[in-house]
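yo

u said u wanted the structure for the complex thing, so here. seqs first:
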Amino acid sequence: MSSLTQSPEFHRRTQQQVDELSKHGSYHSLELADGTVIPGLIGIDALKARIQSFPIPEDLRGKRLLDVGAASGWNSFEMERRGADVVAVDCVEFEEFHMARKLLGSKVDYRILDVDELTPESIGRFDYVLFFGVLYHLRHPLLGLERICSLTKEAAFVESFVTDEGPDPASPCTLEFYETNELGGQIDNWCGPNTNCLMALCRAAGFARVVFEHKTDRRAGVTCYRKFEPPPRDPKAETPRIHAAVNNRTNDTHFNPAKDEYICVYFTSAQADLARDQMRIEIDGYGVPAMLLTSTGDDGWQANLKLPPFLGAGQHEVRVRTTESKFSNVFPITSGPAPPREVAVGFRPAAEIAEAAPEIYAVESNVTGTGSFRGYKNEYLCVWFRSNERDLKRQEVLVQVDDRDVAALFLTDVGDGRWQTNSRLPADMQPGPHRLRVRTSRSPFSNEVEIRFEPN
Amino acid sequence: MKARNPVVTEETRKLIARLQTFGWYHSIQLPSGEVTPGLQTLDQLRLRARQFPIPEDLRGKRVLDIGAWDGWFSFEMERRGASVVAVDAVESEKFLHARELLGSKVEYHVSDVYDLRPSQLGVFDIVLFLGVLYHLKNPVLALERVCALSTDLVCVESFVTDDGTDPDAKPSMEFYETTELCGQFDNWVGPNVACLLSFCRTAGFARVTLESVLDNRAHVTCYRKWAGREGTGPSPSIMSFDNATSHDLTFSAAKDEYVSLWFKTEQAGLTENDVFPEAGEFGARPVVIHNVGGDGWLVVFKLPPGVAPGWMPVRLRVRDSAYSNTVRLGIDVTAEELRRRAQASGNDSEFKIEGATDGKTWEPNIVRIGTDACVSLWVRGLPHRRFDDVAIRINGRELPIAFVSEPDSAGLRQVNALLPAGLAPGRVDINVAAGNSVTPPVQVSLASGSHV
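structre next:
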C-alpha cells in the first residue's frame, strides 16, 4: 500500500514544514488589500490553485459559506471577497486569523469548534461548505462527513490526503489507519483513504453525488453535491409511483433522526432492468444514493437508502425518479424522537356515526401497480381514500377484505383530505375477485372496490 | 477474499435462508438438556467463547454482552455466576423467549452501541463485543464507548480481511459502501488484523492481545490495566505535564484528550513498551515517547475513556521501576472548585510564599509563558520530608515541582516548577501545597512573549 508513511523523506519534509511554520508563524500566506503579501507556509499560488480546482462560483453574493478547518483564513477571506457571508471554524485558535481579519477589515464570523460540535442548530446551514485538509485528522471520518452533509444545502468541497494516485475503478475502498505518528510524524493524523474510499465515504455520509476534481501531490479534491442533476427535459420512461417508504428497523413511516436510519422505498416502474445507479431518490429535495435496488416482482422495486444525516424533526417528502423519468408522487414520512410505543389497540367504532363515509379512489399492489395482487412476501395492499375527517390515526381506520378485518400497518396523510393506508393481504386468499372497503371509527363504510388475487 | 466474492455472497444468502427456517441464530440448551437448534451449533458457540481468557467462575462480576442476538453468550456468562446485561440494536423475541425458558435474570436493553453510557448502565468487569464491529460505520467511536464501560477486560471478535500472520502488514481497512461484503448492506468495515489491534489500542485500552484468527474472524482481548506490578528500581520523577493539544492544564472527559508528561529516569533507551502510565485505576498506553535530553523524557498518552470528573491521580513506572510521584489532573473541574483551592490556606501560619519570580530572568512577580517556562518561589516553612507530595497550584490547578533547594540562611527554600507553554496570560494565584498544608496565594502575572 502507501509507502509514504514509511518514507524518511516524507517525514523529513513534514518536519521541515513544521519548522518553517513556526518560523513564519503563519500557515497560509495572506494577501492584503494593498497587495502586500504576508508569507506563510503555503504560498498564494498554491492556495489559488486549490480553490480554482473546485467549481466554486466566482459570484457568491447572497450565499452562506462555511469554512471548516480555516487555519490562517485565506480561503475564508477569498470567499468573502467573492461576496459570500462566511463562517470560519477551527478546532484551535489561529492568532494570525484575527490579525488578518483586522488588516482586511473582514466580517468573517470566526469560531472555535470541533467538527463534532457542528450542527445545524449550533451554526445553521450553508449553501457551500469548504472542508479542506481536515478529514485525515479525524478518528471518525464518516461521522465528520455526516455532520458536514447535514450543514450543506448545495455542495461541500472536500480536500484530503489520500494514499493513491487518483480514482482507480479496479481498487477496493481502503483506508489506512495511523495509530501514532506514522503519517508525517504527527500524532493528529488518523486516517488515509485511497481516492475511491474518500468518494465512497462522501456518498455513505449522505451526499447525492460525488465528483472527482483533482489530485495533486498526494491530495485529492472532490465535490459533494446534495442534489442530483436536473430531471430530463424529455423523459423517455414512464413516471414511477411510490407505494411506501418505510423504516427498515420498525416497518412504519416514522424515523428517529438521532439514529443511523434506513428507508425502504417500494415503487413501481415500467422500466425493465433498472439499476441502482439510475435511481434518483429525493428527500425534501436532497438527493440520496440508493444502496441497494431489488426487484420485488412484476413492475415492483425496492430501493434501500440512508435517511439523510441529522435530519430535523417534522414531516419530510420522499419522491423517486430514474435518469429517464419524471418524479413520482410524493410519499410523506415523519421524523422526531421515538414516539412512545403504540399500545396495540384494535379498531373500536365510536358510539355514534358522526362523519361521512370515506371514498376509496385507488387500490394498488406495490408490485404490479394495479388492483391485481400476486401474494409476494413484500407485497402491500395500498388503499387511497378521501375523508372529511382531520388528524386521522392509524387505529381509527379499518380495512376489510371480503368483510374480514386486515390491520392497517401505517396511515399516511397525502394532503387535500386524501389518505393512504398500507396493509398486508390475508394469508389464505383464494384466486379470483375480492371486495375491499374501508371505514373510520366515526364513519360508515366506504364504497366497495374490487381487487383480484392472481398468483403466478 | 470475502468481499466482492459472488461465491461467499451466495453462501451467505443460503445461510440466511436457513436462518429463516431455523428462526434461531444461536443454539440454546434448555434446563431439560434439550437443545433448540440454531444456525450456530453449541460446539461453534463454545469454540468462540474459548478463544478468550474468560474465567470459569464469574461470581460477583458484572458482564455486558453487546450484540447479544439470541443470548447464548449472555446465558453462558450467567451460568458462570455473573450478573449480566445484554444489549442489542434490535429487539430479539427469541432472546426474551429463551430467557423465560431458562428462568434467566439477564437484564435486556435495546440500544445502539453509540448510545451506551456508564451513567446509564454502570461499568462492567467484562464486556463481550462479539461480531459487532464490522457492522459499524464508526468503529473507533464504538470501541471508545465500549472501553468507557469496562473496568478490566473486553473481548472483541470481528471479521478481518487477513489472517494476521504477515508481520509487515500495515493497519488498513476496507470500506464497504453497499453490499460488497457477503451481499449484506449492514456490513461497513473490514479491518486487517493489524488495523483491528490499532483500533482497540487507539480506543484507550492499556494492552491488546490477539488470541486467534479463525475463518476470517479475529479474537482480541483488550485490557484496561497493565499486566506487571510495581518493581523495585529507582522511581522516575514526573517534572511537569500539560494537555498535549491545548498546552494548558484543562482536560475534558467528553473530548479525545492527550496528556504530555515530562519525567526523569536513570533508565536509557526507553520505547513505547517500557513506559507504563496510569490514570486513575487504568493503564494508558504511550502514543509517543522520546528523549528530551539527558535523563529527561516526554511521554504522550490518551486520557483513558470513562474517567470521572474531578482530580485524577496520574503516575507511571518504567521497566522494573517503582512508581513515580503522583500528579493530579483536573478533569472538568468547576470554576468554583478551582477558586476554592486557589484561596485555600492551611492552619500553618509559618508556611508561606515570600517571593515569586520568573525561573530564568528572576523578574519579580512575572513569569514569561512559552517553551521552557518556569516559575521560582521562595517558600518559608516547607515541611522537611518527601518532596514528592509537594505541588504548586496555579489558579487551583496542580503541577509537580521540578526542584527544591536546601533552606538558605533566612530559612527559605527555592521551589521551581515548569509551566505549560499554553497557559493564558493574565494574573494568577499561586500556592504551594505539601500534604494537607497549603500556603496562602500570591499573585503573579503570566506574560506572553519570550524573554528579551
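The two ends of chain A are 52 Å apart (CA to CA). The mean pLDDT of chain A is 90.
cya
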